[in-house]
């Protein structure tokens, strides 16, 4: 066990060393994504710029999140040579439609009623941008909800107010504890960031 732990620390030290000349910029106001980057234990700064998240309705599935993560990067026009800008976007995909963040309580209620007793997909795209390259990756996780009662939905919305979350829920919150029967894929992707994919891509960039 000790040997394995030392090996993992050595890997992280190697990645830190390779990335030491880069300035990693996380362009996200999401507390969850910021917490993930802190837990990844890599140096980074936070810069957030407003962008109008409008996309062509002909786009579907991961093409939506790919486009939006790239759109969020497009407003950063003054990157320095050593900057790596990281932008991302998450949607819930069900019945060939994208569910983003609800506008109000009523829309959130309708979203959860729609997810109740059904399977949906959570899609996150992450875009890595520098002055001379851009790489976008995405991840898909399937999530199954048990049938949710109106009382359960009402309790969750009134007490947790998940209006900043795609699909109107957070898997790490009460509704996830009592309502999710199973998932297929990355748990952290449902929370908004496929951490292993971010780590993998940064490793590839460091080895360029």
From TrEMBL:
- What is catalyzed by this enzyme? UTP + H2O = UMP + diphosphate + H(+); dTTP + H2O = dTMP + diphosphate + H(+)
The reply to whether Hydrolase figures as a keyword in the UniProt entry is yes
What keywords is this UniProt entry annotated with? Cytoplasm, Hydrolase, Nucleotide metabolism
Q: Which domain of life is it from?
A: Bacteria
| Important for substrate specificity (site feature) positions | 32, 90, 172
One Pfam family this chain carries? Maf
Places the protein is found:
Cytoplasm
Known EC number(s)? 3.6.1.9
Function noted in UniProt? Nucleoside triphosphate pyrophosphatase that hydrolyzes dTTP and UTP. May have a dual role in cell division arrest and in preventing the incorporation of modified nucleotides into cellular nucleic acids.
Q: Which family does it belong to?
A: Belongs to the Maf family. YhdE subfamily.
Please state what the protein is called: dTTP/UTP pyrophosphatase
Q: What's the source species' lineage?
A: Bacteria, Pseudomonadati, Bacteroidota, Flavobacteriia, Flavobacteriales
